[in-house]
């Protein structure tokens, strides 16, 4: 017997920290058991966010619930309470955690749920236009930087990314531009040195993912770019 205090401070035993993966109810796609109280703690590195997409929800409607919290415990804001049948709901964490609880009572059951998680860049830009700059800009960027930027515009739009300034240590400090929402998307171009000043790039879809990396010596101005929804 652990006693009340130990129970109260016990963290969720099911932690998910991979770049991507799945969570599902016990025995999915077979019927889940009665009286479950399951937790799923999905944690990304600091600076990244968690995206969670429910491919299937099938529970006893109004009685057996999946609760999605924006944080690392049930104390985090409740984003949604799913019950009954649904598919396709997507949730994104504000910081680097989502916490999911699945509870069933006695009586009716179902297949439960399956959901897929992935890590998104936490440095997110939305809206029709904006400015993206290297860390510390207009000062020099730091050594050993590894920064991500996720730009997302309206669903049916594309993005024009135009660089006003680009100045990095050639070959050692660079910016990767991906045609999508993560590093899993196709790489459009890797920019380094000063050649990229006044370069413009276009996305095919409504998102662009940038990754800026610097090595351990020689800091330059970095970059400043304007993105526009087109
Ligand atoms: Ca039930
Ligand atoms: Ca450098």
From TrEMBL:
Protein keywords: Disulfide bond, Repeat
A Pfam entry, by short name: CUB
Signal peptide span: none
Highest taxon listed in the record's lineage: Eukaryota
Transmembrane region(s): none
Limits of the CUB domain: 12-120, 121-230
Alphabetized PROSITE patterns for the sequence: CUB
Protein name listed in UniProt: Tolloid-like protein
Organism expressing this protein natively: Artemia franciscana (Brine shrimp)
